[in-house]
Amino acid sequence: MKRTAILLCALALIAGKAQAKEELLPYQDKSLPAETRAADLVSRLTIEEKTSLMMHPSAAVPRLGIKAYNWWSEALHGVARNGSATVFPQPIGMAASFDEDLLLEVFTAVSDEARVKHRMAREQQGYVKIYQGLTFWTPNINIFRDPRWGRGMETYGEDPFLTAKLGSAVVRGLQGPDDSPVRKLHACAKHYAVHSGPESIRHSYDAQVSERDLRETYLPAFKELVVKAGVEEVMTAYNRFRGEPCGASPYLIDTILRGEWGYKGIITSDCWAVSDFYVQGRHGFSPDAASAAAAAVHAGVDTECGETYRHIPEAVERGLLDVKDIDRNLIRLIADRYRLGEMDGIDPWEKLPESIVEGAEHKALSRKMAEESIVLLQNNGILPLKEGQKVALVGPNADDKSMQWGNYNPVPNATVTLKDALQERIPGLVYTKGCGLVGAELIADNDRAVSLARPALDVNAVLRQVEGCDIVVFAGGISPRLEGEEMRVNIPGFSGGDRTDIELPAVQKELILALHDNGKKVIFVNFSGSAISMEAVKGSCEAILQAWYPGDEGGEAIADILYGKVVPSGKLPVTFYKSIDQLPDFTDYDMAGHTYRFMEQEPEYPFGFGLSYARFKYGRPRMRAGEITVKVKNKSKVDAVETVQLYVSKPGDSNGPVKTLRGFKRVFIPAGKSVRVSIPVTEDTFQWWNEEAGDMTPGKGRFVILTGGSSADKALRGRKVNV
Fold first, then answer.
1. CA-atom Rg of the chain in angstroms
2. DSSP H helical segments within 443-553, as ranges?
């Protein structure tokens, strides 16, 4: 009898479990594909609930177990706007490393910190607020076609090939291994497409470019991230493209992105970009908010950063929008929340400790990236410095922590400025700020507006302070308080986040020249997110370093290079022009005359340029057995890293690029030794514009391959090849 009772209980338990399993609704069944679950869940939502889930602050739907979520998070070069985190160098600086592997390490560290911060938010409040999610709107892979663009510092430079390779490394680092049970994070390729300033007209500008420029320059990085790197999100740009807002362009979205490239992921709008469709004085594309929402949803913009999607129910009621378009977009959003593990509370990275955030390992990684990003532009033999030399530190950027953080940045608990680092090495360091950035002190009213205080330059006072010092390290340049995204800045040389010229501010030129005329040997350390003309000061400087905005360990990295602990290896990811006279009109998006690829004048410093404490000699390249090889010799007594660059040109193509980067490799070469460097020939190497196909296709015929240490003709050795 007792055994029978036990058996009956067991059978009842099994039956209960079976019944519970049978009662599991499809959206609750973790064994089903994410799309199947998402489609079932969407079918149970009201139109108001659907609308609430398609904006960046995605509302909770408690009756179906959906928690509040926010799609908007930032990680341009560290987990931003979410408490303290490690600050890596600004992307334009990281691009100067030409180091895909290190960039992958950096963004793996960023994704680790992001997962920790997301877990902490969920544990503390049970849901996710803005900047605490798993969906990060980076990288910015627009082409930095003009140094006046304030947001260019967010990009990976002016070259499509370099941007594609480095952008792909960012995506892989953020999104994690493909074999993970859930996606680690989302990366987002932005801003699609043809968007490179000016900031002041981005809400109304209509980008008109040839199909060749579109396919040859503006789209390759997006294609690479979509087709090869598997990026999970794409953000549309503010501007119009050929008369239509990018977020409502059938050609960009349906024909190219989802059609030709087979993109299956999420599309999001830039913030409040959908309102640009109808707000007076902007695109004039839609008559009202409901029409704008309908246009974006119909085009396939799945989630909106902004508030125009609140008008979706009105658009449906007026017959402007079909529910099937809403469902199609929302299924993509919900499916991706399942694939992130966010809907089910799955987190394979839950054991990552909080101590990794700004931990020693990530700080060291930030320092290493800063070291690789710094570009030595000039050296008349003064560097590296020797211990015991009498060195003074002067300049407005010598002790500016927030300048080093760049924009879209975390705020770290500790930052090492150049002043901090040199004080460790030079007891009793002579230091004076000397002057403001622009001849007057900048006073930040908020993160996007600055005003000016009284003039702050007394040359004689500076000279008295540095008396007795033979060498002056001058830390100057500009600041993220002057260049960036749509800022309220309107002072000489700067307007709305962009620059109106590329000169070093006059007050800094005056002080550098005065120091030189007083017999000082000046080492100029330039901090900026864009190219600065050095024409006026390079004759007064013994050495020039381009430091970008180098992150929280930037001071240490610069000091290590100044004193030879680290041999500089950075290469310019943008052209440094002699003056604004070498630039076409800022609003001209045609590539003719823009960047090293189409420039016929001699720049101040060419794309790919960067000196070392070593000297390298290149042999002629050879192509055989599916690779291009070149012999490189280190003709110095210093072990060093050289970035070997491969360029391709096509004789007879008068409308094409003069030359274009198609490969690169960082190589360690011991002092006095030679190495043979091999760069594989891939489908990208000889891709060229095909007029008949209207696209880039594998090229045929006569090409020239060129290898060297920069894009300058005098730095390259070439060979004609038949393909």
1. 27
2. 459-465, 506-517
According to the 3-state scheme, what is the secondary structure of 630-654?
EEEEECCCCCEEEEEEEEEECCCCC
Q: In whole angstroms, give the CA distance from residue 455 to residue 440.
A: 4
Neighbours of 25 (CB within 10 A): 11
**Cα gap 476→509, rounded to integer Å:** 10
Q: Which of 99, 233, 270, 342 is catalytic?
A: 270
d(CA 635, CA 670): 9
Largest CA distance in the chain: 109
| 270 in active site | yes
DSSP 8-class letter at 55:
B
Instruction: Look up residue 87 and give its two tokens.
Output: 């600050």
H or E stretch at 677: strand 674-680
pLDDT, position 10: 43
Does a cis peptide bond (omega within 30 degrees of 0) precede residue 193?
yes
Give exposure, 664-699, as e/b (b: 16+ Cβ within 10 Å).
bbbbebeeeeebebbbebeebbbbbbeeeeebbeeb
Exposure class string for 457-491: b at 16+ Cβ within 10 A, else e = bebeebbebbeebebbbbbbbbbbbbbbbbbebeb
Global pTM reads 0.95
Residue 198 preceded by cis peptide, ω within 30: yes
Has 358 been annotated as catalytic? no
In angstroms, the Cα distances linking 586 to 22, 201, 583 are 64, 11, 8
Alpha carbons 43 and 7: distance in angstroms, whole number:
41
Low-confidence ranges of the chain (pLDDT < 70): 1-22, 440-456
CA atoms in the 13 A half-sphere facing the CB of 285: 30
Would you tell me the crossing angle of helices 323-339 and 34-43 to the nearest 10 degrees? 130
Q: Which domains does the chain have, with CATH numbers?
A: 31-84+110-146+174-204+220-351 (3.20.20.300), 362-598 (3.40.50.1700), 616-722 (2.60.40.10)
What six digits make up the tokens of 148? 């006046």
Give me the residues paired with residue 140 across strands.
190
- Give the residue from 163, 168, 165, 170 showing the smallest Cα distance to 142: 163
Question: pLDDT by residue (tens digit) across 174-195?
Answer: 999 999 999 999 999 999 999 9
Q: Starting at the edge strand that comes first in sequence, how are the strands of the sheet with 702-708 ordered?
A: 660-669, 640-649, 702-708, 716-722
d(CA 491, CA 482): 9
Structure token digits, residue 562 = 């100044």
Cα(386)–Cα(395) distance, integer angstroms: 21
One of 199, 400, 483, 503 is an active-site residue; which one?
483
Q: Are strands 57-58 and 494-495 parallel, antiparallel or unpaired?
A: unpaired
Question: Would you say 609 and 710 are in contact if contact means Cβ atoms under 8 Å apart?
Answer: yes
- Nearest alpha carbon to residue 333 among 79, 30, 51: 51
Task: Specify whether the CB–CB gap between 168 and 104 falls below 8 A.
Answer: no
Q: How many CA atoms lie within 13 A of 569 on its CB side?
A: 25
CB count within 10 Å of CB 547 equals 27
pLDDT digit string (tens) for 580-593? 999 999 999 999 99
Q: Check if the beta carbon of residue 650 is closer than 8 Å to that of residue 688.
A: yes
